Structures are given as structure tokens and as C-alpha cells.
Amino acid sequence: MSPARPRVVVVGAGFGGLRAARALAKAPVDVVLVDRHNYHLFQPLLYQVSVAALPPSEIAYPVRSIFRRQGNLAFRIAEVLRIDPVRKVVVTDGGEIPFDYAILASGSATNFFGNDAIAKVAFDLKDLPGALRLRNHLIRRFEAAIAAADPAERRAFLTIAIAGGGPTGVEVGGAVSELLRRLLRRDYPAIPASDVTVLLLEGGPRVLSMFPESLSRAAERSLAKLGVEVRTGTIVESYDGTTVRLRGGEAIPAGTLVWAAGVKASPLPGTLGVPLDRSGRVPVLPTLQMREFPHVFVVGDAAHLETPQGPVPALAPPAMQMGTTAAKNLARLVAGEPLKPFVYKDPGVMATIGRKAAVVAIHGLKLTGFPAWLFWLFVHLMQLVGFRNRVVVFVDWAFQYVFYRPASPIILSIEEDALQNKVLDEPARRM
Ligand SMILES: Cc1cc2nc3c(=O)[nH]c(=O)nc-3n(C[C@H](O)[C@H](O)[C@H](O)COP(=O)(O)OP(=O)(O)OC[C@H]3O[C@@H](n4cnc5c(N)ncnc54)[C@H](O)[C@@H]3O)c2cc1C
Known about the structure:
Blueprint: E1 7-11, H1 15-23, E2 30-35, E3 39-41, H2 46-50, E4 60-62, H3 63-66, E5 73-77, E6 80-84, E7 89-92, E8 95-98, E9 101-104, E10 108-110, H4 116-121, H5 128-147, H6 151-157, E11 159-163, H7 167-187, E12 197-201, H8 213-225, E13 228-231, E14 236-239, E15 243-246, E16 251-253, E17 256-259, E18 263-265, E19 282-283, E20 296-298, E21 303-304, E22 306-307, E23 310-311, H9 316-335, E24 349-353, E25 357-362, E26 365-368, H10 369-383, H11 387-403, H12 414-421
Parallel strand pairs: 1-2, 1-9, 2-5, 9-20, 11-12, 11-17, 12-13, 19-21
Antiparallel strand pairs: 3-4, 6-7, 7-8, 10-18, 14-15, 15-16, 22-23, 24-25, 25-26
Bound molecules: flavin-adenine dinucleotide (FAD).
């Protein structure tokens, strides 16, 4: 790296940060990419890890391998504690990193809406350790169900409630229901399949509210076929590890609650010292710069950009597109050229329901069922970082599809998983 060139610090090696760092490959700058993990995580497939359908290493790719050939980039693994746009330093647990320009791509966190009791005992799907904890927990619930003498207790162990009927809730619901029933039949024949209950609890009038209504209904039908009980207009108020309480007073004994009911920005934008939106995102100019600090760009789930069609959604495609635009604008800023506004090219929305169905809405085209699932599979495989991951995931899925053998239906501690997959770096927080 040359001391004479401007230094750009990119915070976050997720969808937005990765694209930004790549798009700076030929710019006359030195790039420092910082992330708390040494891998890029393909979050849309996290739920597959949580149901033991894929091992973690197939949806995580080492950052150093991705950037092996990018000469102007250095990767640092560190927890970023705050960003000081006035002093132009990123403060990490390993010291300060000075910058001339910064791109913040720190993504989002689960929003429990201040309900700390739920946060303590419910499972969310935001990172690999979390997905593995859910996988281990589900398998432990099976074992507890086998040991339970009381049928009501056994049914409670085998009741999985999912709060939130967005794409994550729908995907988890379908996959969990399918996995549980098949795994039970194969490995726990003493447990009747009718003892398993998978509940998808959605506060609004329909699941997948951002999809056309006909696709929401198709998703509900596909979920019902997989044995998922969908309850709309249902708000979860509390959970203590054994009982879900709904608004209105109903109590449901359940051994597992998966929280897929909300996201907010990660805490880092809060350290910038500027007003944020209600979800903790940084309002940005159309060029993706901060209004107060034009040398700082914000992209992906951490950014709030208003457009005539409404705010740009917190999804992977906008994060990737924003990453590229921010990097190009940054290069223009360095060169003294005029910056260009971000224009979102909406590729549509899709969600999968079990192994054979999905719903897809793309530019007026609506697909449901198996054709939609094939489309979903193709799009997600193409987006997976690295040729090896694409091939391995495809072979795994094809194998699963034919034989339906969940990839790793054994209980591993997080440490064992880390050794096995060599990509994890977080200690177990809850087992
Ligand atoms: C379970 C799940 C399923 C999803 N499914 C879909 C889907 O099907 N389709 C879709 O389009 N979108 C989906 N999304 C949303 C999509 O993943 C996000 O919109 C996208 O990842 C946002 O990209 P980003 O770059 O802003 O943040 P991320 O990809 O989340 O990357 C943020 C990065 O910043 C790092 N980071 C954060 N804080 C710090 C810190 N303090 N110090 C160091 N590093 C830090 C993180 O480790 C991470 O690597 C899903 C999300 C989840 C959780």
C-alpha cells in the first residue's frame, strides 16, 4: 500500500461491503476492509443451516480468498466499536484505523422491539452461530420428546412457533416442518408425526405482505401442505422458553420460538452522531453520501434512501447495487468528477417453501410451486460467492432432493462446528 494514496475503510464484508471493496479494485486508493468475521455470509440460506440441510461452510466464504488477487486491499478482522467521521478514524477492538473516505456497510440486527425476555430465550437467524444454535436446539427437543413420558409435554417439546410471516419466517416454517416430519419418520419412529406442530404467527392480515396478494395465498396453501399452521392477525406478546403468550391472552406451550418479526440497523450507525431513521438507519443523499460528512458513504441495510417509489428495501440486491454505486462515486470524488445518483434496479422478490415450492414476483411475472422453486434455486446458486460453493451446494441439494438426507443431523457444540468448518470465530453464547 502506498502512503500517498487516499485510504478507504470499508466496514462490513456483507453484500454491500463486498461489492464496494471489489468495485474499488482499479481505483487509485488503498482499501482496508474490516469485519468481525473472516467470512462473507450468504444470509438468504441461513435457514438451511438451521434445519441441518446444509453445513455452514457452504454458505460462508473466506474473505481473504475472495480478495486474494486484489492488490490494493488489506483485510482486517476486528470488531468495529465506533466510527468517528470528524477525526476520520474507525475505532476497533484492535486499535484505530485512520481513513480519508469510509463506506459503512454494517448491515442489520434482529429487532425484538425492546422485549428483552423474548430476546433471551427465542432464536433468531442473523448469523452462523445463531443458525447452529437453533439446529442444535431442535435436535435436543427431539431427544427430549423421546424421553418425555407425558404426551402433552412431548407435544410441547415438538411445537415450534415462528413469529413473523415475512420471507424468513415463511422459509424457516416450511423447512422446519418438512425436516421435522421426515427426520421423525426416519430416526424417531416412536414419535407420531401428528405430535409435531409448526405455527407461523403473523401480526398482519397475510404472510409475505410485500408480495402480490395472490402469491401470499399460494404461499399459505404450500405451507399448509407441509403441515405449517399459519395464523394471521396474531401478535406474540411474550415467551418464557416454554409458553408463547399471544395478545388476547391465548397461551401456547412451545419448546421453540423463532423470532423473524423484525430487523433494525446494526448499532454502528448510532455512533456517527447524526439523526437516524426509526430503524436506526442513516439517511443518505442520492449519491449514498452522508449529508453531514460527504467523505462517508453508507450502503445496504445500514442506509435509508428515499426514492419516489418509497425507501429502498433492506434486501441483498439493493445492498449489492449500492455497494457498487458508492465505490464508483467515491472514485469520482477522489478524481474531482461529479457524482451520480443511485438508481435501484428492482430484480423482484422470491421466497421458498420447503424443497419443492416457492413464490416469485419479477416484473409482473408471477410464479408459484415447483417452477418457482427451480427459479429460486438458480438465482441463489448464481449469487453464492465462489465457484466451489456453487458446485458444492448444488451437489448437496441434488443429493438431498433425491434421498432427503439432512446434511448434519447431529448435535455439535459451536466449538466443534468451528473446528469442522474452519470459518466460525465466535464462541458459543447460548446452548
Ligand atoms: C435469515 C435471512 C434471510 C434473508 N433472505 C433474503 C433473501 O432471500 N433475499 C434478499 O434479497 N435478502 C435476504 N435477506 C436480507 C439480506 O441478507 C440483507 O439485506 C443483506 O445482507 C444486507 O447487506 P449489507 O451489506 O447491508 O449487510 P450484511 O450482508 O448483513 O453485512 C454486514 C457485515 O458487517 C459486519 N459487521 C456488522 N457490524 C460490525 C462491527 N461492529 N464490527 C465488524 N463487523 C461488523 C457483519 O459481520 C457482516 O459481515 C435475508 C436476511 C436474513 C438475516
